[in-house]
Every structure is written in structure tokens, then in C-alpha cells.
From TrEMBL:
Secretion signal, residue range per the UniProt entry: none
Coiled coil stretches, renumbered: none
Spans traversing the lipid bilayer: 15-33, 53-73, 85-105, 117-136, 156-179, 191-218
Record-given protein name: Transmembrane protein
Keyword ATP-binding: no
Protein keywords: Membrane, Transmembrane, Transmembrane helix
Top-level taxon of the source organism: Eukaryota
Tagged with keyword Membrane: yes
Disordered: annotated segments: 308-335
Ranges of biased composition (kind: Basic and acidic residues): 308-326
Annotated source species: Cerrena zonata
């Protein structure tokens, strides 16, 4: 079995850590670049700012700060105060993971209609998680001439507990979310329910696998470098999955469900309507639609019928259940400018 703590082995491990860090930092830089329009929508006022989006920005930019710092730390060979610098990297990376988990926890609270017991459970989990995050910066690093900063000691027990707790937290959030959404899905078949369910499931799978790999290497405790070699990939994967889930919901809320019906008159005079998609109108807005008639053919007369549709907020409230309204209204805090995500149309 190789000696993982020998100078030669640690030099190779440091080189591998540098390569992995640069690779995932590049991936994250690209992710931030291609999604800057989401931030711009808040700066320009196209989206109304609401407090839950602060967690999104913290998760996103704490991870960005960690990636920038990591690249600097591995590329600068001298002049750095290694221990404070690596503590900063460790804390920003861990804090980003904590914010990523809170992003999904806030959804769970909203889905459960701010149930006090759910809030108590999630708040206790958040406090426990952050008690471990704040201890995760306890490490030792030194500078080797010609090599740069090298980690010589890490608190493996705390780091492992942090990742295990994070996985357990994500699992609890997924179970609570799935349980409630399956109840709503059975009675409403709401497109919003599908978005929330699949976003939460995708985030959990990505975060769980990333944290699992990092946890395995930490529990093996081969060397100080090998114990944290997959921390950066874990941070990047969790940050990307979490922030994409938030943007997905915000985009869904802004676009909204759509309603449109067209029909065909057959030879026997019956009308068969088929659902299509049109942009959703706001309450009180009238959609101006037209009616066209095609020339007769051997198959009969086909008429494309389109109607004047008005979205009536009061009628919507009568046709939808109270639970769906509260769910839609609460979840709009993630970026929708609409008052609801599920609207019905009534003919005028």
C-alpha cells in the first residue's frame, strides 16, 4: 500500500487537487456567466425583489468567492498567508453549501403552508448544520518554497460530520417535499407541482452524490490533501443544482401556465376541442382571438375556433382550491411578478 503521507505522494496529490480545482472553477465561472441575465432582471426591475432571493445570491456568490480564492491560492506561489487564506476558502465553500440547502428548505416551508411544526424541524436542522459549518474552518496550512500553500492538517471529524449532516438534511427536505407534493398532485395535477418535485429530486441526487464522494474520501483519511480533494467539486455541484432549481421556478412563475382551445366541426355537426398553448393573461386582461373558416373539402368543413378570453381573478378563486392558491402565491416570492401561478379563463 502506498505511503499517502510521503513528500512525493503529497506533491502528486497537491498537483491533482490543483487540476481538479481549476477544472471545476472553470465550470462554475461559465455557469455564472451564462446566467447573469437572471441577476440583471432584478437590477433592471423586471423582477420584483423579495427576501428569499437573498439566499440564492448568497449561495451563488459565496461559491464564486471560494472558486476565485481557490484559483488564486493554487496559482500564487509566494506572498500568501496560507492559514487564513485556506480558512477563508473552507468557510466560503461550506457556507455556500449551507445556503444551497436552505434554498430548498424554504420551498418545503412554503409547500407546507408555513406549518409551525415543519418550520421548527427545518430551523433546528439549519442551526445544527451551521454549527458544523462554522467549525469546518479549523485547519493548518503552510507554504513550501516553489510549491505554494499546502494543507498539513484538517479536522476530518468535523468535515465528515458536516457532509453527512448535509446529506441527511437534504434527505429530510426531499421526503417532506415529496410527501406534500404527491398529495397535491393527486388532487390538482398542477404543472407547478411537477416543477417543484423534479427540481427537488434532481437537486437531491446531484448534491447527495457529490457529498457522498467527498465524505468517502474524508472518512478514508489517507492524507490531509486527499481528505478534502473533492470538496471543491461538491461545492460547485451543490451550488449549480440549487441555483438552477431557483431559476427554474422563477422562470416558470414568470411565464405561467397557458390556456388555449381550438376546435373542429365534423360532418355530424359536433365540435371537438383540443387544448393548445397561449401566453397567460393577467387578471382583467383580454386576449383578442380570431375565428377562421377553411374551404370545404371531401372530409367536411373544418373550422378553427378561437375565443375572446378574459382572466377573472374572482372566477379563478372559485374554480381552484384554497391550498393550491396559497402554494402558488407563496412560491411566487422566488421571482414571479404574477399574483398566482395557476389561472383559469372565462368567456366574455
Amino acid at each position: 500500500m502506498p505511503d499517502w503521507t510521503s513528500p512525493e505522494a503529497q506533491a502528486k496529490q497537491s498537483a491533482a487537487l490543483t487540476l481538479i480545482t481549476h477544472t471545476f472553477a472553470g465550470i462554475y465561472f461559465w455557469e455564472v456567466l451564462i446566467s447573469l441575465d437572471f441577476e440583471w432582471s432584478y437590477i433592471s426591475g423586471r423582477r420584483k425583489f423579495r427576501y428569499p432571493i437573498i439566499i440564492y445570491f448568497l449561495a451563488r456568490y459565496l461559491a464564486l468567492a471560494a472558486m476565485i480564492g481557490a484559483v488564486i491560492g493554487f496559482d500564487v506561489k509566494s506572498g500568501l498567508n496560507c492559514r487564513p487564506f485556506f480558512i477563508f476558502l473552507q468557510m466560503t465553500g461550506n457556507a455556500s453549501g449551507g445556503m444551497a440547502t436552505i434554498n430548498l428548505a424554504l420551498r418545503t416551508i412554503a409547500i407546507w403552508e408555513r406549518n409551525r411544526y415543519i418550520i421548527i424541524v427545518i430551523v433546528l436542522l439549519i442551526l445544527g448544520h451551521w454549527s458544523l459549518i462554522l467549525q469546518g474552518g479549523l485547519l493548518e496550512a503552510s507554504q513550501i518554497p516553489g510549491t505554494g500553500c499546502v494543507i498539513v492538517h484538517t479536522n476530518v471529524v468535523v468535515l465528515t460530520a458536516n457532509f453527512v449532516f448535509s446529506m441527511a438534511f437534504d434527505l429530510v427536505v426531499l421526503i417532506l417535499t415529496a410527501y406534500k407534493l404527491l398529495q397535491l398532485r393527486g388532487s390538482h395535477q398542477n404543472g407547478l407541482v411537477n416543477v417543484l418535485f423534479y427540481d427537488g429530486l434532481i437537486y437531491f441526487i446531484c448534491a447527495f452524490l457529490a457529498n457522498l464522494v467527498a465524505t468517502v474520501f474524508m472518512t478514508m483519511n489517507l492524507s490531509p490533501v486527499m481528505s478534502i480533494i473533492f470538496n471543491v467539486p461538491s461545492t460547485v455541484v451543490c451550488a449549480i443544482a440549487s441555483t438552477r432549481a431557483v431559476r427554474s421556478l422563477a422562470t416558470y412563475a414568470a411565464d405561467g401556465p397557458h390556456i388555449f382551445y381550438s376546435g373542429t366541426i365534423a360532418d355530424n355537426g359536433s365540435i371537438q376541442f383540443r387544448p393548445h398553448l397561449l401566453p397567460m393573461a393577467r387578471p382583467g386582461q383580454i386576449l383578442s382571438l380570431s375565428t377562421t373558416r377553411e374551404e370545404p373539402s371531401q372530409e367536411g368543413v373544418h373550422v378553427r375556433m378561437e375565443r375572446m378570453v378574459r382572466v377573472d381573478e374572482e372566477q379563478k378563486r372559485k374554480s381552484n382550491t384554497r391550498k393550491t392558491e396559497q402554494l402558488d402565491s407563496t412560491l411566487c416570492t422566488y421571482g414571479s411578478n404574477n399574483d398566482s401561478l395557476d389561472m383559469k379563463g372565462t368567456a366574455v
